[in-house]
Amino acid sequence: MILRAAPALVLSLMALPVAAGLLGTIGPALRPGALEALLAWPGLARAIALSLVTGLSSTVLALAVVVLILATLSESRAFTALRRLLSPLLALPHAAAALGLAFLIAPSGWIARALSPWATGWSVPPDALILNDPFGLSLTLGLVAKEIPFLLLMALAALPQTGAPARQVLAASLGYGRASGFVFAVLPALYPLLRLPCLAVLAYGMTSVEMGMILGPGLPPPLSVQVALWSAQADLATRPLAAAGALVQLGLVAAAMGLWLLAERAVIRLLRRATMAGLRARALDAPLAALALTLGAGLGGALALGLAGLALWSFAGSWTFPDLLPQTLTFTIWQRAGMGLTATTLTTLALALASAVVALALVLALLEAEARQGRRLSLPAQAILWLPLLVPQIALLPGLQALALQLGAGGAAAVFAGHLVFVLPYVFLSLSAPFRAIDPRLATLAASLGAGPDRRFWHLRLPLLLRPALTALAVGLAVSVGQYLPTLLLGGGRVTTLTTEAVALSSGGNRRLIGAYALLQMLLPTLGFALAILVPALAFRHRKAMQR
Amino acid sequence: MSALPSYDCLGRVFLRIPRRPGAQTPRVQPSASENTLQIQRRHLLGAFAAAAALPALPRAARSSETWEALLARASGQTVWWHAWGGDPKINDFIAWLGTQAQARFGITLNHVKLSSTAEAVAAVLAERDAGRVTGGSVDLVWINGENFAAMRAENLLFGPFAESLPNWPLVDTVGKPATVTDFTLPTLGYESPWAMAQLVFEYDSARVAAPPANMAALRDWIIANPARFTYPQPPDYLGTTFLKQVLYTTIAEQALLQAPVDPADYDRLVAPLWDWIASVTPALWRGGRAYPASETALGQLLADGEVDIAFAFNPGRASAEIAAGALAGTVRTFTPSGGTIGNASFLAIPFNASAREGAQVIADLILSPEVQARAQDPAILGFQTVLDLVRLRPEDRARFTALDLGVATLSPDALGPALLEPHASWTTELARDWQARYGTSP
Amino acid sequence: MKAGLHMHDLRITAPGADAPFVRLDGQVPPGQVLTVMGPSGSGKSTLLAALIGSLPAGFRLSGAITLNGRAVTGLPTEARRIGILFQDPLLFPHLSVAGNLAFALPRGLRGAARAETIEAALEEAGLGGFGPRDPATLSGGERARVALMRTLLAAPEALLLDEPFSRLDAARRAQIRAFTFATARAHGLPVVLVTHDVQDAEAAAGPIVSPFAD
């Protein structure tokens, strides 16, 4: 009976806060004068263009690289190595990733230091607008690098549902190369399962405040960054401006998604034509595989190097250009950060565990209810589930903050609820495909052996889902740890997590402290992912079929 | 390179003040007891030399019984101090202050780290609009300038309280007028000062042989050394301060800055400023196509060697950073002749604060010589004190004289005069104007 | 009490269709095998799904099914006491061979009695000592035998076979087929076999029906 209510409960949990947040933020936008004021801002056209271009291009590129990797490298040693490199990067919060990348590519950054002065002759950093470039290239780079691990994880979770190995073998037997075989035989089955993650990536790429501020241009910044700047000002006059900007941003995201779906149709038509033409393209396999490996390892490696640079900064004493390594190492920053660190870490841990565990329980209930009723969630219901991913946070949270104040709520409970709203869709995304992929005949068999619905859940489905469930839990942990705006606004500043501390400190530009906090922010989700790998490996060490 | 271009290190933010027709800048009305104290001080100062001992002055206004009662009520309270959290040295200082408050008064001090003071203003505003008139989440705010003006205009502040604090008489309200006048707005006791700030320029002496002597020489230097100078992007407070600094040297009549902006005259008055800026923009770092987001981002540029001359609001910042190993040891500071803009940082208490008494105790604690001296220590913070050293007891004065100012800090004599902050409307108009001219790169 | 499996005017209609695509009326006495034949895609598996109670949503079933006098139409799968074997043995991958067999045993049986029952079943299938083995390490024939014993340990009153021999190689096929039928007969179970292989039908030695619409 509780189970029957699960879908309704989860959907209202997603829909109501989103609706309330939207109304509370958009309301001021519809007051007269707000849109006019926004249109009067000279940077509007540029900011909109930036948002669209960086969002769309980063999503397309990330998808292309993921498809390339899957098409050419599956089942090879290189693939396993690539997976091992990319999976921990999922746990890296966006801000830390952006800061690491910024240190890597800046004119005074690590790459320049590695090449100076012997190759470049620079004794001071050159005056080159690489970071924060006006076309948003470094922002796009950062977004692509950060979204590839996520899309790869989603694709790998969905791949079993497509029967990919059989299809690829079939295509190979017909003379197709690995790449063309994948694109023609597997991709049509895989892409529909990737569509929503792609749209979520698109929404984030267009509206990311943290990455936009660190890597994006400043004159003018992308639209959502500007909206955040306007919201942060105490002047009441800029609030309608920010609200109007949020409304326009919403419209942009919707338009971009529409554009994406249209482009989808065009690409499908092209693919069909190519499929009919029987393009074998076996010769492309080797170069494409090399490209995939270079791009995947390169981008993942860039993030890892950036993080390593930040970590090194956290131990650095004096480190001037063009030194490749710090002149002195010191623990000062760690000692400083040590004060009050325990409380913050415990708060982060408690919040992350609570929201991830509750989200997992709700998602399991939802999927189990689906299985028992024999009916999938309707498409509108699924859309609601993805709402928190598709609606920019910047458009929701000020409204939710006002609502929380009205209700008198505040503090840890409100933050927990806020985290739950944003964690649940990710947990659902990573668990739904494996859950639905369980052979339905297994359940029928179990039932025919006399096992009732509860026994089938606890003794059949759950054990089979151990690894996917723990992975989904780790994803939930990572998402919760990385939340900034919900913790800040719903907690009234009373709830401090590692991320709120890191962002507050990063506004001070202190790279050493940022490095320390970036490392700590990574620790919790990395542990989660490590457990997701170790526990099933341990539990099923004598079960070969469970180790795929 | 910061996550949120912070407007705020010392509490300022871009703000438009609605102009009420016919409003005049109110004049300070000193209380009777304060008048007496002023006369007393003048007599004493005239009678003794600067080095002569001075007895501690009697507590003003509030009788010792009332302060005791307030201390009793404050004991056991938890004070939430909303202050910018971008500098770990400041965070450590506040943490240390918390230990003192706990040990001496039984008050728990919690530091809410903000990216910008505007967040606290917005929070109190939101609470007021939601009807929360007691038990607010903000007890104490590090604030000044436009934020203070905004909160006063909306009646969001508790007060007056500052001049009733036991340590108030030690504040140098005469020699440091910025302690009672905030961006031309009299504080009237609604905020209590705790640190002085003055704009100083920092340069790498290993690369710059002789720093420019004045603002005109600075312009020549920038043009002669392309891509080695820049300023934070307005409306960041330090960026607008740089504009105000240039405006001071280019405006026809400096006194006009103390009055609100007159729209009829504005364009004519600022024309020389924009000429100055236009002449240097092509020679700026990144050719003026990008700007650092904040004071600390600019400081990072200096540390990375991307610029040779930077500036900050804290004369002790360079020494503190050198001591922490984050800045090259060859960095020194200078001020152009003619003076640089200076102001004070304040503490204010929202009207709905839940720990009002505890907040006042903290404000008083931070005015104590011991705490002020610790703040001035470049190994700790390097913030200049608001106290008048002459009024201190010899042992307290010794705390300050014993301090090593730091290798890069200018002595108070060499610092030069502090120019008063212009009226808040100038900040607003300059920021808006800059955004219109340079806010979108070509 | 009428022993065996009785299907009274069973009709199954596909979602959105008017006419049923399966019409079956008949009975299977204990120990006998009813062979259902039809071309691929005609709905053989759907018929079995209807009998076992796992018809996908949208399909409509009319008629009644009784087993040993008990009406089972409308009962959930776990209450029907009907066993099923699919094309793949579908041994639970997270359990050992013994664990798979234990899954089928009722809760009441515990401890030593439980272990003895499992071992006896393994012996009957010629797989003595295979208890702790990982199902993934067994050959196809061994897996098929474990699957059969698992089904039988649940003490079903009828057995459904969904082309369970089609994945096995020719030599094993005959062996497993014979073993399956013999065991079912020995336990007195009515069997419904779905297949498109004529040899299976011959080995079943029972009536053959083709209840599918064209």
Keywords:
heterotrimer; A: 548 residues; mainly alpha; MetI-like fold; 76% helix; 0% strand; globular; B: 442 residues; alpha/beta; D-Maltodextrin-Binding Protein, domain 2; six-stranded mixed beta sheet; three-stranded antiparallel beta sheet; 15 helices; 39% helix; 12% strand; disordered N terminus
Explain how this protein is built.
- The complex is a heterotrimer of chains A (548), B (442) and C (214).
- Helix content of chain A is 76%, strand content 0%.
- Chain A is an all-alpha fold and 548 residues long.
- The longest helix of chain A has 40 residues, at 238-277.
- In chain B, 39% of the residues lie in helices and 12% in strands.
- In chain B, strands 1, 2, 3, 6, 10 and 11 form a six-stranded mixed sheet that branches. A three-stranded antiparallel sheet of chain B has the order 8-7-9, with helices on one face. A two-stranded antiparallel ribbon of chain B has the order 4-5.
- Chain C is of the alpha/beta class and 214 residues long.
- In chain C, helix 3 (97-104) runs parallel beside helix 5 and helix 5 packs parallel to helix 6 (170-186).
- The radius of gyration of chain C is 17 Å and the shape is globular.
- Chain C starts with a strand and ends in a 5-residue tail after the last strand.
- The chains are: A mainly alpha (548), B alpha/beta (442), C alpha/beta (214).
CATH C-level label of the largest domain in chain B? Alpha Beta
Structural class of chain C: alpha/beta
Count of runs of 4 or more consecutive helical residues of chain B: 15
Biggest interface, and residues per chain?
Answer: A-B, 65 and 74 residues
